[in-house]
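Tokens for chain A. Residues wanted.
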């Protein structure tokens, strides 16, 4: 029994060491992401959404998916906050293809997650931003081509989104927003750090590289796109894992595929989208994100 306890104690010390090292390396990015996300939400969010609403008065045609996708990335709202907002946009005359571009890119990325992702290095950050932007544009174009004369979304029953940032004191408004962000993401961030510590301790780097590295490109990208479905719970929580995976030999293409399928198939996002899409279009959405993620991963590996 004493030997078992000694082994457990030793393993706890190892995992705790990896946990603290990972936490020190990535905590600053988490804090900066929280603060920036709250600043944008409190002071810039209405301006971003006003710019998108103003697109309805412009005759941009298919090119409207470009600013729509950019503004979707800039929006700090989660999907449950984005859908009532999209319903409001739709009632004000915004086209479904522009809404699709806005919502798709909003699902995949936001300013807070951009800051988190700087911990992955400039190459991964650039690929993440570019692939999310392109995914939003492609989604919008597909809606324009295949649903030109019929609605794609059903926003029946959605009212104007509720605004939590209403405190008249701007400083208190910011502090409360930061508190809500920490409450929503803090636990998942620590879980991500713990998982990366367990991975570092118990998963051999050479075996992982053989599965997800460039020597096994097609299968590795497909596997990364697939594991993004059950593993992704919070953007900040996955950054420590992706960071460790890249250090352990994961190809950039596999990482790109995971970063696309993860947020797009996050259970809360899927639940929100199912409401406004219906079963047929919901299945089309899933097929699109899986195919786009796989193709993106293969292209990234080919380029790099």
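Reply:
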């Amino acid at each position: 029994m004493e030997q078992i306890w000694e082994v457990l104690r030793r393993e706890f010390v190892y995992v705790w060491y990896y946990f603290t090292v990972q936490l020190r390396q990535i905590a600053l990015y988490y804090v900066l992401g929280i603060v920036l996300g709250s600043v944008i939400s409190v002071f810039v969010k209405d301006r971003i959404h006003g710019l998108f609403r103003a697109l309805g008065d412009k005759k941009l045609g298919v090119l409207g998916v470009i600013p729509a996708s950019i503004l979707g990335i800039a929006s700090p709202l989660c999907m449950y906050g984005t859908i009532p907002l999209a319903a409001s946009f739709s009632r004000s005359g915004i086209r479904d293809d522009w809404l699709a571009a806005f919502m798709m890119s909003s699902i995949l990325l936001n300013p807070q997650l951009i800051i988190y992702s700087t911990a992955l290095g400039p190459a991964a950050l650039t690929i993440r931003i570019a692939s999310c932007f392109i995914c939003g544009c492609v989604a919008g174009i597909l809606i324009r081509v295949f649903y030109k004369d019929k609605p794609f979304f059903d926003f029946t029953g959605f009212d104007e989104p509720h605004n939590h940032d209403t405190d008249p004191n701007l400083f208190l408004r910011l502090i409360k927003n930061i508190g809500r962000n920490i409450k929503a993401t803090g636990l998942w961030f620590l879980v991500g750090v713990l998982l990366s510590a367990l991975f570092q301790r118990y998963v051999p780097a050479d075996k992982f590289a053989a599965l997800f590295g460039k020597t096994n490109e097609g299968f590795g990208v497909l596997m990364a796109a697939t594991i993004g479905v059950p593993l992704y719970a919070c953007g900040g929580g996955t950054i420590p894992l992706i960071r460790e995976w890249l250090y352990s030999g994961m190809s950039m293409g596999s990482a790109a595929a995971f970063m696309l399928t993860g947020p797009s198939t996050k259970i809360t996002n899927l639940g929100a989208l199912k409401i406004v899409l219906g079963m047929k279009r919901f299945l089309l959405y899933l097929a699109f994100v899986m195919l786009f993620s796989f193709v993106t991963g293969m292209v990234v590996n080919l380029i790099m």
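The chain has twelve helices and no strands. The chain has a mean pLDDT of 85.
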